[in-house]
Amino acid sequence: MLAIVAALGALLGAAVLPCAPAQAQTTAALPFPPPVQERASVLNARLGLHPDKTRLVLELTDSVSFTVSVHGSPYRVVVDLPDVSWPGGNTVMAGKGVVARYRFEGRDGGASRLVVETDGPARVVESYLIPPRDGFKPRFVLDIARTTPAQFAASPPVAVTTGTASVSREAARPPARKDPIVPVAAALPPPVPPRAAPVPEKPMILVDPGHGGVDPGAVGVGGVYEKDITLAMARELKRQLEGSGRYRVRLTRDKDVFIRLRDRVAIAREVNADLFLSLHADSIGSANMRGLSIYTLSDRASDREAEMLAAKENRADALAGMDLSSENDLVASILIDLAQRDTMNHSKRFANMALEHLGREVKLIPNKPHRQAGFAVLTAPDMPSALVEMGYLSSPQDVSLLSKSAHREKLGRGMVRTIDAYFKWLTGAQKS
Ligand SMILES: [Zn+2]
């Protein structure tokens, strides 16, 4: 079967590209020559679950050119790169979603290869490079989706896309679709037999207790601090999530310390969180207003109150003498990122599920319990994020509730149900 695929690939290649070696032609087809550069390194790799695909993101020190191809026996997606270093990349890394496992190989002749084994026939939805911008390094994005054996067999044996960082995502798309079929399969060595396969990882939930240290957050009725309420709830949620056996959990802080908003986002990216949940409790002028509300990121605030709340929460860093304008820049710039759009839709979906499940356990605010605004702490570009205002510290009743462990247990239960429903949606939708 492999021989037939390779031979067919060679035939097609010969028809399209007479007398040209496949790889040379691929490189020549690039719209721009790759820039001369130092050897690039992979800084970080993460897999993200999406309802219709699994996304692999490589964060790189420098932009690189790449070639993506799809293969069978075993089913895998291969990304060929120039000579790239990846400290620790030679071990087989655990998969998630469509991806069974993946590994990185240095190759002869100053080249590197990323082999992404899938759990069945798969197709590449899209692959592109996001140029470095606004403090983010270049990112290579590979979206893979399941396909049927029949569709896999019917599609060309090898589909190739190429790109470099000197081409914007939009500019890279049309040539990628028009690329001729190139017999990369003929150049591939026999597939490596599967090694000891690591079990797929449990989703990582990052729980972020708002404020801390010099920043007490809101000061409530009776002098209660928001930073203490959020930490107590974060610990309870961690206890319940870990108790379920279905998740890995990290807290951005487990003691009374100050952490900058951008560092909370950095921690989320460092641990490759699948979900980021920031816990808060607001305070306003009225003692009567009470209930829970949930917020997601948007470049346009849903209403004036949400906008003011975001401004208030974004001021956290100013309390420790940080320059606030940089947080506002962060919010403004990240929203241009196309990869963010997808993440924002997931965040909204999560928020809607949260209202459904939390609404059964605790009181929600009466008017529009899900709102959107530019929260600096929700700007991780590739993970769904939400901010929960668990209640109002200006309400004696909410303060009394949030100070009780029985109430935190109920709230935690609703959050675990929400998280269960969310990941069920993600993984369930992926399998269909
Ligand atoms: Zn807060």
UniProtKB/TrEMBL annotation:
Coiled-coil zones: none
A Gene Ontology BP annotation from the UniProt entry: peptidoglycan catabolic process
UniProt signal peptide: 1-24
GO molecular function: N-acetylmuramoyl-L-alanine amidase activity
Positions of the MurNAc-LAA domain: 265-420
EC number(s) given by UniProt: 3.5.1.28
One GO cellular component term: outer membrane-bounded periplasmic space
Keyword Signal on entry: yes
Record-linked Pfam families: Amidase_3, AMIN
Catalytic activity field: Hydrolyzes the link between N-acetylmuramoyl residues and L-amino acid residues in certain cell-wall glycopeptides
Presence of keyword Hydrolase: yes
InterPro entries found in the cross-reference section: AMIN_dom, MurNAc-LAA_cat, N-acetylmuramoyl_amidase_3
Keyword vocabulary terms for this entry: Hydrolase, Signal
Name of the protein this chain belongs to: N-acetylmuramoyl-L-alanine amidase
